[in-house]
Amino acid sequence: MTTFPLKRGREIGICLVSSFRIAKVRQAVRAEFIEEHGEFKPPTYTAELGGGPGIVKWEEEHEYTKDNIIEGSEEDQAAWKNHERLEKMLSAKIWAKTAEVYLLRGVMEDLPENDEWIEDQIEDGLNVPESPRERKIHWIKTELLTDSSEMLDLIAAIQGRELEVERAATVAAGMFQRQMG
Q1: What does the alpha-carbon distance between residue 69 and residue 76 come to, in Å, rounded to a whole number?
Q2: Which string of b and e fits 158-170 if b means at least 16 CB within 10 Å?
Q3: Measured distance CA(61)–CA(19) in Å, rounded
Q4: In this structure, how many other beta carbons lie within 10 angstroms of the beta carbon of residue 95?
Q5: C-alpha span between 11 and 8 (Å, rounded)
Q6: Is the pTM above the cut of 0.90?
Q7: How far apart are CA 143 and CA 137, in angstroms?
Q8: Separation of alpha carbons 151 and 12, rounded Å
């Protein structure tokens, strides 16, 4: 088992989280977001191309980018700002959900047997979730980890564990292929 050193001096076990699960979680969050907010795409403009003596002209539709939206109408610029707002909201939701999955599936620590930590948190004015899933995530964030930078380091270590396993599988496959000739 791989361990991760916490800032408080304790080491916790971490394990691989399926990249397939993470991809499915991200797809599910995106689908739910689109269902709630509708499909959103950047505003578009029509460009006239071609031309000149004897050359055919045609039009193509293009999406605005952050580099050329300034050339758009006020309406297009407002649509762009809304598009950016929705992209940021979606990105934040995807990050929050995938972080939860990494913590829940990648941290190999069980909740303490006794409920002292719950009593302490209630005395401190914190709400402790009832759901076992939410309770474990809450415990990891409030009892194991000290701050968001430690959480990011932990998630990076879990992701690094996934890369180690993928590299080992690639090396093993290469060795097998060489042995088979």
Answers
A1: 7
A2: bbebbeeeeeeee
A3: 36
A4: 13
A5: 9
A6: no
A7: 10
A8: 13
Q: Tens-of-pLDDT digits for all 181 residues of the chain?
A: 799 999 999 999 999 999 999 999 999 999 999 999 999 899 998 888 876 777 778 888 999 999 999 999 999 999 999 999 999 999 999 999 999 999 999 999 999 999 999 999 999 999 999 999 999 999 999 999 999 999 999 999 998 865 555 555 566 666 666 666 5
Tokens at residue 65, please?
């980018």
